[in-house]
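Structure ticket #2291
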Amino acid sequence: MWWARVILLLLFHRGSSSSTTRAPENTCPPSSCGKISNISYPFRLKDDPKHCGDSRYELSCENNVTTSNLFAAKYHVQSINYNNITIRLVDPRVQQDTCSSLPLYFLSQSDFCETYQDRQYCTDPYQASLFRDGSLLFEHIVYLNCSHQVTNNPKYVDTTSCLNWNSNKGYYIYAMAGDLIAQDFQVGCHVILVTPTSWLSLQRNHQLLSYVDMHKALVYGFEISWLDLACNNSCGESNYCSFNATSDKLQCYADVDCSNIRWEWMNNCGIWPQLRLFVKDSIVYIWKVLLETIKAPFNRHPFISNMLSGEYPLRVLIGQYALTSFLVARFLFGMTLFIALLIYKRRKRHLSMFEYIEVYLQQQNNLNPIGYSYKEIKKMVRGFKDKLGEGGFGTVFKGNLRSGPCVAIKMLRESKGNGQDFISEVATIGRIHHLNVVQLIGFCAEGSKRALVYDFMPNGSLDKFIFSKEGSKNISYSQIFDIAVGVARGIAYLHHGCEMKILHFDIKPHNILLDENFIPKVSDFGLAKLYPAENSIITMTAARGTIGYMAPELFYKNIGGVSYKADVYSFGMLLMEMASKRKNLNVHAEHSSQLYFPLWIYDQVEKEQDIEMEDTTEEEKKMIKKMVIVALWCIQLKPDDLPSMNKVVEMLEGDVESLNMPPKPLLYPNETIENNQRSSLDQTMSSGYTSGSYDSVEIEANSLIENIS
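Resolution: structure written out below.
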C-alpha cells in the first residue's frame, strides 16, 4: 500500500511547521513597532525574515501602530505578555478620549473553535477561555437597537450620554454587559453588535455598570491566548496540557485521553446516545489515522501503534488501508474520467470544425477548383519529399497532376476560428481567374487534412530577386517595372473586376509569385476579406497583415476607415522596395537619414537629384523615378489621399513627366518632420521592424500599437 500513501501524500500533505511538537529555536532579535517593543516568537512582523516567528501569528506595523488580523478583522495590539501567554487587543474604532462611536467589529467567544466540544482538530491560533481568580476574563458587551425605551430591565444601559444618535428617529441604542440570555430579550429589540473585553470582571463586583465603565473596558481591550501552540511545543499532541497561573508554568499530564469520550459516555444514558458517541469517536479516530498515514507514509506514528496494541485495531485498519485505498481509487478513476472527457470534447470540437468546412465547400456550386481526397494529394506529392518552403501557415511541396503539369501543394497546419483562413482562401480565389492572380487548381478538406493545390511557379517569390544576396539571381529594372505593373493590374482586378470587392490585406514580396516568364501572380489569400462593391468602408475587430506593409488606418482609427485603400498602401510599400531593391528600413545604413528609405528618397526626388542605382540606363532611371513617385502617392497617411488601384495602373503606364510630386509622407498622425529631428525619428522607426522576413498575422489593434510604438 506504499504507493497509495505516496499519492495521498502528494495530494493532501500539509506543512510540518504547524504540527511540530517542540518549539523551534529562535535566533531572531525582538522586533518593535510603536509602543510594542518585544515582538518575538511566536509573533513576527511582516518585514521580518521568513524564518522568524510563526506565520499564523504575523503582525503588521501601520503608521507606527502594531495591528493583528483576527478572523479577517484588524485589531490594535495593546500588549504582549509572554509570561501568561496572552496578547491584548482593542477594536480600532474605540477611542480613549471619546465614546461617541460603536466598535467596528463583531466578535464573540463563539467565534473561537475551542468553544465547541470536539477540539481535536481545532486550527485556531488563539484561544479565549482565560480564567483569573476563578473568573472568566473573556466577556462581552452587547449592543441592542430597540424600537422603544426599555425601563423595566436595569441591564439595558442607556448610551445617550456617549453615542451620537437621536431618539426622534424612532430607535434607541442600549448596551448590556455580559452574555444575553433569553429572559433578557425585550420585544422590539435586536442585537446589532457584540464586542469582547477582559476588564469587566475585575471592575463589576456583581454590580451594574454605567456605559462610561463599559467604555473604559473597551479601551482596555480583550485578552486571548496562544496556549494550544505553547502546549503543543512543550507537551506534544497526545498529552493533556494546562497553564498554572500561580507559577506561570505549563503543566503536562501524559496518558490522558484528550477526546474525553469515556467521560461523555458516563454522562449519557441509553443506547442511542452511546451509539451516537461511539460513531462520532470512531470517525474521529479513523480520520486521524488517515491524516497520520498521509503525513508519514513510510513511518508508523506512535499514535497508530498505540491504537493497534489497544482497543482500536479495527479503526486503524479502516483508516490506514481501507479508506486510503478507497480515496486513491476514487482519485485515479476521477482523473481517468476527466482526461477521457477532455479528449472526447477536443475530438468533437475538431470533428465539428472539419464538418463545417466540408459542408460549406460542398454548398459553393460556383467554385472552379477541384476537390481532391487526401489519398490523391499524397500521390501528387510522392511522399512529401520535395519541399518548396515553409511558414507559419504550413508547408509547400512540389507535386504533379495525373496529366503531368507541376503544381505547388500547400499543406495547412491546424488553424483557429473553425478554419476561416482556409475557407477564405478557397472561396476567394476559387471564383476568379486573372493573368496576375495565382490560379487555385484544387483543394482538399478531408477530416483534419487541409491542402490547397496551385499552379507551380518555377521562379518562386519576388523577395529573393529584389532583396538580392550574394549568389542569388538578379533581374533588370525593366523586368522589375513590368512585374510592378502586373501586380498593380492583379490588385486592381481584385478591387474592381469582381462582383464582390476582394481585399487581400497581405501584399508583400513574399506573396508575389513569378512564373517561368516572370509574370507576377498575387498569392496567399488567407487574410483576404470580401465585401459588397457599394460599400466603401468595412468593419474590422482586429488588424490584419504584416508589420511594415500594413496601412496606418488599421491601427490609427482617427485618420479614416478601413477600405480597399489598405491594399493600395501595402502596394506602395512593395513598390518602394522594388524600386530600390532593398527593404524600406535599413538598420545598417551609414547615415541615420537613410534608415527609412521612403523619406530619404523623397528628399532626393524633390531636389531633382538623380537616384543612384548600379548599372542602370537613362530609360531605367525614368522607370525607377516613376515607381518612386507612384509609391509615394500610395503611402500617404490618410486613406482619402491615396489613389485607387486603377489610377495607380494608369500612372505606371503613363509618362513620368505627367506625374505630380505628392506631399511628403507622414509616419504618424499630427506629425511634423524637421531636418534636425530626422535622426531621432528614424531611430524610433527602427525599433518596430526586423531585418528578416515578416509573418502574416491577424492581431488586436491595441497590441499592434504596442509592437510598433
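Closing remark: The CA atoms of residues 463 and 509 lie 5 Å apart.
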